[in-house]
Amino acid sequence: MKSLKFSFFRKAKSILATAFPAVLLTCSLTLKGQAPFTNNLMHSLWNKNAKAGFAPEKPLLLKSVFSETHRKAKVFSSMPAPGRNDGPLPPDNAWRWGFSSGVNFSKITDIKPVIVGLNTAAVTKENYKRGFVGSVFLFKRFEDSYVAFQPELQYSCQGGDFDYKDSDTIAPLTSKMRFNYQYINFLPLIKIYPFFQSQGFAAGIHFGLAPQLGFNVTHSKIRYTSAPDPTFDLDISAALGRMLKGRTDVQAVFELGYDYFWEDKDVCFSVNGRYNVGIKDMIETQANGFGFPEIDGPGFMEVDNFSRHFQVTLGVSFLLVQQ
């Protein structure tokens, strides 16, 4: 029994004598990028102990210890070290260019008094319209600063939907008007990165604010559909386009988004959500004799109509100029 204990402790000592130096050196050399040399070093240590009479035949236990240690050290060494640019933000003081695309949901306020005038019996609803939005932009984050500047040129399909149902109980007329406007927008966006000094996820969070000037390039594009009799829908659509003119729009833009910088490819990805608030009347009502004056008032009424919409976009940017 005593000889068995002695044999067990002798083998344990030999394993520890070989394993611990190998484990420590494996971690050290792997983290320094010299992992290929650790295998030869392991065998040298083994042979040294074998000559001293402390190393038994190479056990599977020691091979598994070495393999597991080497694997974990490789995983640890692949983690970004402090001070690298891997992470949410691209390097500061550099101009980048990029593009983005997504979807917006827009509507126009106060359409009801424009369409139905004083007819309070009509049932109406203003709905959001879904459309495409795409942009090209420049981007620069100022040196060692939480402020970035992003001038942007944007194409946007926006407008709104308006549903109408009259008060006739026998054969009520239901109709829908779609304001299918298209805009070319320009906005000088200021982006704020409140956690830019953080090394973690929060560094990529940003807020944005900008005025936006939008030029309506389809100012008469209104589509009218009705039921039960769609006979005159095309004529009414054309008349609405002449009477209700889409105008240049001015909006205040509020943004919340996140950026992530991929250093190996020098590419920055972003996801952004925006809420736009119109601050200028976007529809001009032309003089007309539309409607029934005794019911609706003197044709279409001129009121202030403002745009409201949400945007969700995905973007990517690349290095343009390094200063």
State the gist of this model.
The protein is α+β, with helices and mostly antiparallel strands and 323 residues long.
Topology:
Elements: H1 2-31, H2 38-51, H3 60-77, E1 94-108, H4 112-116, E2 123-127, E3 129-141, E4 147-165, E5 174-192, E6 205-216, E7 222-227, H5 233-243, E8 244-246, E9 249-262, E10 267-278, E11 283-285, H6 293-296, E12 307-322
Antiparallel strand pairs: 1-3, 1-12, 2-4, 3-4, 4-5, 5-6, 5-7, 6-9, 8-11, 9-10, 10-12
What does this structure look like?
By secondary structure, the protein is of the alpha+beta class. 25% of the residues lie in helices and 42% in strands. It is built from six helices and twelve strands. The chain has helices at 2-31, 38-51, 60-77, 112-116, 233-243, 293-296, and strands spanning 94-108, 123-127, 129-141, 147-165, 174-192, 205-216, 222-227, 244-246, 249-262, 267-278, 283-285, 307-322. A hairpin with a 4-residue loop joins strand 9 and strand 10. Helix 1 runs antiparallel to helix 2 (38-51) and helix 1 runs parallel beside helix 3. The termini are far apart.
